[in-house]
């Protein structure tokens, strides 16, 4: 098989989105995502419900990905899947399906680290897609993770900072719950933040050594602030919602940017890439772009469809591993706490 004819099917099932993608020589032919709205009623992802929904969605999603890519199963070169980290029940669905399909087609199986995939999504082949040069710093921010990673090459990555409690996405969602917003709250807070005054209310940034993050204390501070204000004025949230959202977002972005500036200073690396679902946030994107002017950084921001959980990022890692001949055995196991 020549390099010019490599088709990788990527499967992503780490949380509550079932996704399948076909990549041909690094170029996305399809990227199908089935989201699970059932969790909105619970204000968060319910693991058991998520794994059941994956079982229902995975066959039609893979079928649709192949159909959109206009190829047959027989043309596939390998199957790449998310091994972890993530919810164990959700991971097992994707892992089992990928192993079975690869075995049935007698083609290689490729295991992918979900967090590495968020970073390597920057290497999807697209005409207007600027790729970061090695080494670069990657800030991966999502509902379950907040990390700063030093990336020396495709497969040599070192976590130099991470959250010691809540992830940044949790900080958004828990703040939203306090304010009575729906789930997920991040997009709503982002939208309202653009209409409010970011300096209307001041929240103290947690003090954490090194390049690590903490968002648990901020969540508690927001809770006590809202409780105090609503006791004095029951309509406080309604009257000041945009300003509250703007102030929360301003504080969160400040925490992220402070650590990023410190990481650049310590490493001397000025190429910055972001990934993960929270990187779709307009305020964070703007702050990162502003860093180019203020600090001389070069920033790399992925397209929206490659920020949230999706299989195109799994497939591109599969493609890069395929070129290296880095395949998994059939006894490979899902790992909920898989590390970079």
Describe this entry's structure for a reader.
This protein has 9 helices and 10 strands. The chain is an alpha/beta fold and 340 residues long. The protein folds into 2 domains: 3-124 and 307-324, ATPase, nucleotide binding domain (Nucleotidyltransferase, domain 5), CATH 3.30.420; 136-302, Nucleotidyltransferase, domain 5, CATH 3.30.420.40. The strands form 2 sheets. The protein has a 5-stranded mixed beta sheet, sandwiched between helices. The chain starts with 6 loop residues before the first strand and ends in a 16-residue tail after the last helix. The relative contact order is 0.18. The mean pLDDT is 92.
> Which of globular, elongated, flat, extended, rod-shaped describes the shape?
globular
Total separate domains: 2
In the CATH hierarchy, the third-tier topology of the largest domain is known as Nucleotidyltransferase, domain 5
Q: List low-pLDDT spans.
A: none
Helix content: 40-55%
Q: How many helical stretches?
A: 9
């Amino acid at each position: 098989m020549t390099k010019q004819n490599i088709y990788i099917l990527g499967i992503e099932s780490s949380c509550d989105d079932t996704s399948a993608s076909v990549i041909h020589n690094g170029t996305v032919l399809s990227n199908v995502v089935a989201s699970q709205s059932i969790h909105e009623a619970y204000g968060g992802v319910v693991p058991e419900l998520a794994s059941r929904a994956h079982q229902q969605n995975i066959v039609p999603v893979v079928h649709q990905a192949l159909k959109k890519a206009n190829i047959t199963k027989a043309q596939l070169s390998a199957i790449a899947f998310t091994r972890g980290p993530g919810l164990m029940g959700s991971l097992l669905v994707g892992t089992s399906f990928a192993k079975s399909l690869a075995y049935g087609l007698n083609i290689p199986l490729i295991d992918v680290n979900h967090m590495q995939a968020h970073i390597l999504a920057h290497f999807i082949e697209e005409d207007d897609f600027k790729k970061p040069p090695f080494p670069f710093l990657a800030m991966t921010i999502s509902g379950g993770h907040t990390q700063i990673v030093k990336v020396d090459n495709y497969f040599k990555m070192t976590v130099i900072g991470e959250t010691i409690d809540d992830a940044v996405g949790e900080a958004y969602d828990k703040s939203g719950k306090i304010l009575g917003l729906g789930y997920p709250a991040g997009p709503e807070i982002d939208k309202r933040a653009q209409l409010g005054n970011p300096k209307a209310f001041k929240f103290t940034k947690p003090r954490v050594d090194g390049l690590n993050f903490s968002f648990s204390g901020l969540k508690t501070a927001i809770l006590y602030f809202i409780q105090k204000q609503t006791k004095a004025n029951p309509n406080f949230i309604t009257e000041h919602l945009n300003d509250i959202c703007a102030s929360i977002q301003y504080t969160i972005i400040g925490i992220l940017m402070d650590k990023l500036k410190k990481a650049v200073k310590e490493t001397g690396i000025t190429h910055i890439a972001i990934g993960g679902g929270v990187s779709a946030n307009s305020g964070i994107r703007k702050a990162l772009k502003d860093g180019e002017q203020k600090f001389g950084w070069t920033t790399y921001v992925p397209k929206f469809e490659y920020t949230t959980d999706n299989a195109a990022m799994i497939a591109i890692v599969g493609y890069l591993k395929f070129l290296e001949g880095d395949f998994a055995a059939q006894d490979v196991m899902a790992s909920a706490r898989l590390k970079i």
